[in-house]
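Note to self: keep these together.
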Amino acid sequence: MKQYITNPTEIEKKSFKIISNELGEFLPKDNTKNIIIRVIHTTADFEYQKILEFVNKPIEAFNNLIKDGVNIYTDTQMISSGVNKTVLKNTDSHIYNFTHDEDVIDVAKAKNVTRAIIGIDKALKQGNIDIFAIGNSPTALNHLIERTLDESIKIPLIIGCPVGFVGAEESKKNLDSLSNIPFIRTNGRKGGSTVVTAIINALLYQSEKNE
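Structure:
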C-alpha cells in the first residue's frame, strides 16, 4: 500500500491547493474565495463555484456582526454540531437549533406543519438571532421570508441553502423578495447541512484572520 497523508492540516492544505489549481482562472479574486473553496472541499463538487451567490454584501455584514459575537439559528442539529465550537467560543458567539425541543414538536403536531417552521417561530420570538442558516428545509426558509415580509422584521444575515427536489430551488429564489437583507444562497437544487456548515466555518475562520 502506498504511503498516505494522515495529518488533517496537511490534508486540508493540499486539498485547498488542488481546488485552487483546478479552478484556475475561475478562482474568485474577492472575499468569496475562501467560502467557495471550503464548500467545494466539503462536497467535491466544482459546480458550487457557479451556484453560490452573495447578495447585499453578506461577508461584510458578517464581519461587522462578529465584532460583538453572533447568535446563529440553524434548521438542523447537523449544522450546529459541525460548526467549530472553539471559534464560536473565542468570538463569544452561539448557535441554536430548536427542532427537537418538546414545545416545538408539540406545536408542529397540533398545527400539522414541519418542526422547521415552528423552530423559526421560536427563534424569531427569542429576538436575538443575528444569522438564520437554513440547509435542509425549504419550508423553514419560506416561512422565514414570509414572517420577514409580513412583519417588517430586519434580519442581519441569511444563509439559504436548502437541498432537494420539492420547493428547495423556489424557496431560494424567494430570497429576492427581501430588499437590502444580506444573504448567501445556492441556486438550484443543491445545498444541504454540510454546505451551510462549510459556509459558517469559512466566515468564522476568515473573521479570525482579519482580527
